[in-house]
Amino acid sequence: MAELTLYSYWRSSAAYRVRIALNLKGLAYQQVAVHLVKDGGEQLAPAYQQMNPQGLLPLLVDHVCGRETKIAQSLAIIEYLDEVFPVPSLLPTEPALRAQVRALALHIACDVHPLNNLRVLKYLSTELGVADDAKTQWYQHWVHSGLKAVEQGLAVFDGKLSLGQRPGYLEACLTPQVYNARRFNCDLDAYPRILAMTARCEALEAFKQAAPEVQPDAT
Amino acid sequence: MAELTLYSYWRSSAAYRVRIALNLKGLAYQQVAVHLVKDGGEQLAPAYQQMNPQGLLPLLVDHVCGRETKIAQSLAIIEYLDEVFPVPSLLPTEPALRAQVRALALHIACDVHPLNNLRVLKYLSTELGVADDAKTQWYQHWVHSGLKAVEQGLAVFDGKLSLGQRPGYLEACLTPQVYNARRFNCDLDAYPRILAMTARCEALEAFKQAAPEVQPDAT
Predict the structure, then answer these.
(1) With contacts defined as CB-CB under 8 Å, which chain A residues touch B149?
(2) At A8, which CATH number?
(3) ipTM above 0.90 for this complex
(4) Residue A74's domain spans which residues?
(5) A55 contacts chain B (CB < 8 A)
(6) B219 belongs to a structural domain
(7) Same structural domain for residues B148 and B65?
(8) Helix (H, G, I), strand (E, B), or coil: what is residue A31?
(9) CATH code for the domain of B147
(10) How far apart are CA A72 and CA B91, in angstroms?
(11) Closest CA to A211 of A65, A32, A10
């Protein structure tokens, strides 16, 4: 049995972040698919909720010395991986720079992604009766509002990746968000720094192997 | 001039988190009020956006050796404070426990708070024409969905605070969320662990002095 097990769904962009982080660290892991749509969402089934009461993906299970450590929330998982498997690091060394990385990643993880999550889009349709085109506008509104700020924030890296020549925590959050934005037809031309950073990452094996379409549960 | 400046709004629960963290560390700071409602929101004015393109509160400015480090996102600020001013710590020492704290804090910061943020409630009203009672239901739905999971997650602390006898990162996120939930009349009786933890914290000076009502800009 693998030491690390990731409960994941191919299109979950939070799970995608963790797959990138695991690959960047060269960590082997077993993947268990949790289908976010089938049967009203397997993440809401008792078997999964017992492991992760948050009812969201991803969940990492670290099997250490016969004990199981279960960790919810993609950013908590990435911080854990960086603490337990520190080489290669995913965060810069200097506190001020670590803070810039976290602030950009958190802007994506708090202020863009949760608003456009499947469960929220579903609530908009079913509970509030929001029509499809208004829902698309909602989606694009939060993407653009977030990416505009991230574009400005990336200036601090001066055309480099967040770890100089290497990607890390920041790119693990940014690339899945760009993937989502493209999926929902957001025009990204106004974000040259984001596009350049993402293009560099998408060419790397760690990112290629984390991409939604190549996951075992992709349909 | 103070070494630390916090751009804050008395009722911003993200700013409230950072005020708690600063107080727990015994750090002096200067507070600058950014009014989230007046004139369409001072956080959207060019003067503030230039400092923080995310256009959200809080923002911490650390004046170190004549240089200014500007940090957005409450959780990035708390991580920074814990790295730069490590005593007293806000996170447990053990990685698995640090991960549990972060996972609970992130569930609040990602999956509850941003959905109920002022800018989102405003979008629901003005762009989607959502009526007040449906908006209240939306608010309470995400609060209950989040707090239910947090209540279960707190079991790991076995009736203690996240640092044993001391509060830290977790309580800095939980207490403002409970404050918000009460403000919007959410019934919290189903969450005894949350209520007990919050009650212990609210009796402490660090939390009392961070409370919205005692801030200089409170009205």
Answers:
(1) 53-55
(2) 3.40.30.10
(3) yes
(4) 4-88+207-214
(5) yes
(6) no
(7) no
(8) strand
(9) 1.20.1050.10
(10) 17
(11) A10
- Examine the domain organization and report whether A78 and A109 are in the same domain: no
Residues 16 through 45 of chain B touching chain A, CB cutoff 8 Å: none
Give the residue from chain A lying closest to B109, CA to CA: A110
The predicted-structure confidence for B74-107, as pLDDT tens digits, reads as follows 999 999 999 999 999 999 999 999 999 999 999 9
Q: Are residues A8 and A50 in the same domain?
A: yes
Inside any domain, residue B198: yes
Name the domain count of chain B: 2
At B151-191, the pLDDT tens digits run 999 999 999 999 999 999 999 999 999 999 999 999 999 99
Considering the domain architecture, whether residues B82 and B173 belong to the same structural domain is answered as no
